[in-house]
Amino acid sequence: MARGNLSIHLAERPTGEIIPGTTFTAKTSPAPSPSDLKDGQILVEVLYLSLDPTLRAQLNDRRSYVPPVQIGAVMNGASVSRVLATRSKQVSEGDYVYAATGWTEYAILEEGKFEPSSQYPGLRQPQDMLSALGITGVTAWYGMTQIGDPKPGETVVVSGAAGATGSVAGQIAKLKGARVVGIAGSDDKCRWLTEELGFDAAVNYKAADFKQKFKEATPNYIDVYFDNVGGDILDMCLIRAKEFARFVECGVISQYNSADPKGIKAIGQLVTMRIKMQGFIIFDHREHFPRARAEISKWLEEGKLKKNETILQGGLRAAEQGLVDLYRGINTGKLMVEVKNPNETPSKL
Ligand SMILES: NC(=O)c1ccc[n+]([C@@H]2O[C@H](COP(=O)([O-])OP(=O)(O)OC[C@H]3O[C@@H](n4cnc5c(N)ncnc54)[C@H](OP(=O)(O)O)[C@@H]3O)[C@@H](O)[C@H]2O)c1
User: Fold this and answer.
1) In this protein, which residues make up the domain named Enoyl reductase (ER) (predicted)?
2) Which of 67, 105, 228, 247 could bridge across to 277 with cysteines, CB 3.0–4.6 Å?
3) What angle, 0 to 180 degrees and rounded to 10, lies between the N-to-C axes of helices 164-175 and 135-142?
4) Are residues 211 and 125 in the same domain?
């Protein structure tokens, strides 16, 4: 009997938070087989599925940098997979690839739609292709070095600081000689930032005295703000901005689940403090990936950069609740779901 291929599909568009059991529906169809492959295609099994804040935004029927997920379609998602069969010369059986497979256990991919692990220097384990060497790592590198561009002694503030992007962005700012202040959602995360990652200060935005503590942590105001969250924290950072500050607009996770997103109140600060605020989407900057990955890999090797992964067990079915929990801060470092452990025998299809 043919092996089943579990996939998770969008059932209905949420207006606020994702509702487990309602927003998505699971389906099982026959898994693809090597005989289905055409020239240039590969057959893969997903090992780790990346859970990313932007996935919630892709459920809205709105113009964005990617088309919205359609009702009934397989949920969007990137993963690291193992090649089970290949009719492409770019990879061999058993290689790892990064691709936008969606929420599925098996997929057929064509050349140009996957990245072989050879593009990830210093790769130690497949999950690194989703974490420090993956999209969030290069996003941190690009936003911090090409937009924020901190100088030695400047004050850099990073929100979402204990997450995949923020934790790398803050450490890169430290490597550039800046004084780095992280904002995160628990005392444990703040301790991790200062004690393990070398941030100069970290402030818990859920604590009652957050605003006062943040003021104390930024006595010389802010030169670079790496924004992962938007909302009230962005307004607070605008108010603490120094003249000619650079605001790197990477993401606004505090607004992704909101049916009525908040605007910026302190917009006047852009003028009075002559702030440069720049948003970016990392996929516009692929030409920087080789250099970003090479530098990140070297820093990891030298112990100058640390990373963490929060890996959810339970297979593909754990993705739905995992995505809900991402917005509740379940993760320290990169959040992903283990769909299949790479140490297990490859599937025979
Ligand atoms: N521009 C680009 O090309 C690009 C590429 C990748 C990612 N991004 C953006 O970068 C940001 C971080 O993404 P990531 O993948 O690295 O995720 P992540 O930071 O690993 O995970 C998200 C974190 O956000 C925090 N959070 C959740 N709700 C929040 C809220 N209401 N206010 C403040 N913090 C909140 C949680 O930590 P706490 O416990 O601290 O709340 C959670 O752990 C997101 O905004 C994402 O959209 C942008």
Assistant:
1) 21-337
2) 247
3) 40
4) no
User: For a pocket test of ligand 1, which of 253, 285, 323, 335 has the largest count of ligand atoms closer than 8 A to its C-beta?
Assistant: 253
Q: How far is the CA of 132 from the centre of ligand 1 (A)?
A: 15
Give the 3-state secondary structure of residue 198: coil
214 lies in a domain?
yes
pLDDT, tens digit, 9 for 90 and up, residues 10-19 = 999 999 999 9
- Residue to substitute in 50, 147, 165 for testing ligand 1 pocket (most ligand atoms within 8 angstroms of CB): 165
Closest CA to 166 of 190, 151, 320: 190
CA dist., res. 112 & res. 16, Å (int): 35
Same domain for 83 and 185?
no
Instruction: Say which CATH number the domain at 86 has.
Output: 3.90.180.10
161, 193 in Cβ contact below 8 A? yes
The 10s digit of each residue's pLDDT in 103-132 is: 999 999 999 999 999 999 999 999 999 999
